[in-house]
UniProtKB/TrEMBL annotation:
Keywords: tRNA processing
This protein's record includes keyword Repressor: no
Family the entry assigns: Belongs to the eukaryotic/archaeal RNase P protein component 3 family.
GO molecular function, one term: RNA binding
GO process annotations (BP): tRNA processing
Protein localization: Nucleus
Protein name from the UniProt record: PHP
Bias type Polar residues, positions: 271-281, 311-321
Source organism per UniProt: Glarea lozoyensis (strain ATCC 20868 / MF5171)
Amino acid sequence: MIYDLNVPWTSSTPPATLSRTINFLNSLGYETIALSHFLNASSLPSQITNPIPLSIPTPPNTTILRRCTLILSDPAQNPRLTALAQAFDILALRPTTEKAYLSACNTMPEISILSLDLTQKFSWHFKPKPLMTAVTRGVRIELNYAQATSGDSAARRNFISNAMAIIRGTRGRGLIISSEAQDVLGVRAPADVVNLLSIWGLGSERGVESMSGNPRSVVVNEGIKRRGFRGVVDVVYGGERPASASKAKENANGNGEGKKGKGKRKVENGTPESTPPLSKTQAKKRRLEALKASKESSATPTPRDTPDAASDSTPKSKAHD
């Protein structure tokens, strides 16, 4: 399953343009699409609501998610990340200063995606330690390829330089590739995106993982946070058991014809099939008893061996007067 977790949405976006973009993404193989609403942390409304409508016409076998991308320059502004996370399906952060960038990498457990505007020239370097700290915490680094295909030459130059630095710092791990396409012209096929990023140092396997496995982990984890018990345990409906399989199992349990019951003959009249085997102690005891009985029988004298029987058996001589 291929994901695109960053399709910009505004209240002024024409429904026809949005529908055309979603249909084109679906025709290219993208099955899960996130509509992203950009907010600035310095001008958040008092009551946070989700303006993205739920009733958006979508093609079959397509999942639409609602995402908030918060633009932050100072972490001390108290951007109410918890309320934003509850209102949207996915919460992403776009830092514009080094302080906000380091804070997003090391803290802020509410966010799941670190999305940067790579067309800008940053005042800091993308070192491996902050990036890998974010990846270890479960935050994914997002690369939006439409920033390189739809910008001017300076924007493309900055994007390539920043993307290569991020790929080198993360070694291709924990990345997410999205489009951030304003219309159909900014969308590319998954194979084209993988080939494009392979030129900048991202391997093909890592590229496919950045469009399938990594965004899927974000969607699943964010779903567990909102539906599961304390964001840890989630009960998934696995479907009903087929009636034929359950009936066959009940019959097998009732008749006792399981694996243990096969090949055994029934015991008739309560008698066992064979005498139980003797233990070594019982066998030794029986041998001793048999030996003792044989000795006693050999020691008992027979009637021929008695003295009276011997005197009676001798012939008597006649007495002569």
